[in-house]
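If you are new to this repository, start here. Below is one unmodified record pulled from the training split, so you can see the exact layout before writing a loader.
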Amino acid sequence: MKGILYVIVLAVVLLQCELPKKQENSSREGEIGMYPKDSLEWLLLNVNEVDVIGYNIQMSMNFSDKSASYIIKLINAERGQIADTCKPLARLVFMANGTILKEADLYTDPNCRAVVFVKENRPTHINVLSGAGVQFFQRFLPAKGMKYTEEDIRRLEEQAKEKENKQ
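And here is the target side for that same chain:
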């Protein structure tokens, strides 16, 4: 009788304990939600500068006022998703009069079209980057460094010759 009672108590205790659940989604964003539409609208009203700082290239851009609003409008009010293999192209820094309000990592690869909002370098929200946003950022921040046209190369060569002639 004691043996059966012992087995029942042990079974109840084991059933009360939760085993860690296997994570089915291998994506980096886990269970974070999207940055809400009203929060995006708040950014539109309050942000007057957006800095875009490239990760793999030594390039940054600053957008102010209407240009900053344009950057924010490239973020869709729907939850995004990225895979573990995705790498951010740049960091977006949303500011009001020089004060940082929000930061986000920018992803533009075909399987990683997202803006991941971060706090203390930890993801807090993830939203879809619009198609126009992908095209815009890929044009200005190429993932594998700068791509120069023949005209760009010719202009750079002329500038180098001018510097040599001045010296």
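Two things worth knowing about this chain: Residues 29-141 form one domain. The longest strand covers residues 99-109.
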